[in-house]
Write a structure and sequence with these properties.
The chain is α/β, with parallel strands linked by helices and 333 residues long. The chain is built from 15 helices and eight strands. The longest helix is centred in the middle third of the chain and has 26 residues.
Length: 333
């Protein structure tokens, strides 16, 4: 029997959202709620007032404050493997605060059977079967294909900005709670883009790592003649691979797995999109910062690593480093 009392389900990172739509509940990516809040910096501060340490990822603190202060969801799905290692403690503080929290884990080695088991546990919790879930997969894939086209227009026809590319792909984690309305929004963006003159950038950039906590990165780069034509993790939220198998879809999804699986996608897209250089974004206090040493040794294009802490505009030091990086790449022509 479906859990009819539950109306809105929050989650800490992308999960098999087809299960939630099949259950008739509204999925809510808590990261998107946090960063699009009118004052996300205040949310971080509220978590610190509640006792969260200052030297902890701001995304975790933002999610905590969104849930505890806004109370806009009925339960939480926390990804306990394949995302932030601090999620375990986040779960405990949310349970302590009265929220119902259920775990979901991506197997580190992308094991098909283990992943299928995790998805089926989620399905059993919400009382849905494979027929319902697969119907929703087909429906959501139609929306995803529109976003794939938007991504193609970004790098192949130069008609989409880096910020637009980021926004529409990152929204594929939950389709803004309404796939039909989101599909219309994407279609409108496609129609507008096809009437534009192509961008004429000096420098084509790739952006890898989690979405930035700084709100003006893409605009700042474009003011300097550089455009992001590849958003690595955001693109993965759109599940950019054609498969009828839902389990395979989430096994191909690179973000929850090791850096080497991610690098296969990154290297392929750098070549396909003719990328001049890569910005690697590392969130402060995140274990993924350690992966920077592997990224720098593997990639054959210049890499600039930048770090962000709390939601804010780009600081002067980061702007100077971005300026120097863009000028260096522009001078290589």
């Amino acid at each position: 029997m479906k859990r009819q009392a539950v109306k809105r389900v929050g989650f800490t990172t992308t999960i098999p959202v087809e299960v939630l739509y099949a259950a008739g509940v509204e999925p809510v990516d808590l990261n998107n709620v946090f960063i699009s809040h009118p004052d996300p910096r205040r949310l971080v501060e509220e978590a610190e007032v509640a006792g969260y340490p200052r030297n902890l990822c701001a995304w975790i603190k933002g999610i905590y404050a969104v849930v505890m202060k806004e109370r806009g969801v009925d339960l939480i799905i926390a990804v306990t493997q394949g995302d932030c290692s601090n999620t375990h403690a986040l779960m405990e503080t949310l349970v302590h605060g009265g929220m119902e929290v259920i775990p979901f884990a991506y197997p580190y080695d992308r094991d098909y059977d283990l992943l299928k088991s995790q998805i089926e546990k989620l399905m059993a919790f919400f009382g849905v079967d494979w027929a319902e879930v697969n119907r929703w997969k087909k429906r959501l894939d139609k929306v995803r294909k529109k976003v794939w086209e938007l991504d193609r227009l970004t790098w192949e026809e130069n008609l989409i900005s880096g910020r637009e590319n980021h926004y529409f792909q990152v929204c594929c984690s939950d389709f803004n709670g309404n796939p039909d309305r989101f599909a219309r929004e994407v279609e409108e963006a496609l129609n507008q883009a096809r009437r534009r003159e192509p961008f004429r950038d000096r420098v084509r950039l790739g952006y890898i790592g989690v979405p930035p906590i700084m709100t003006d990165l893409y605009d700042y780069l474009e003011e300097r003649g550089a455009r992001v034509v590849y958003n690595e993790v955001q693109r993965q939220f759109s599940m950019p691979f054609a498969t009828d198998d839902l389990v395979e879809q989430y096994a191909l999804y690179t973000y929850p797995y090791d850096i080497f699986w991610r690098l296969e996608d990154i290297e392929r897209e750098i070549a396909r999109r003719r990328i001049d250089g890569v910005i690697h974004y590392a969130q402060s206090f995140c274990y993924r910062q350690i992966q920077d040493l592997i990224i720098r040794e593997r990639l054959k294009v210049p890499v600039l690593t930048i770090e962000g802490d709390k939601p804010k505009w780009l600081d002067a030091r980061t702007k100077m480093r971005l300026d120097a990086f863009v000028e260096m790449l522009a001078g290589k022509d």
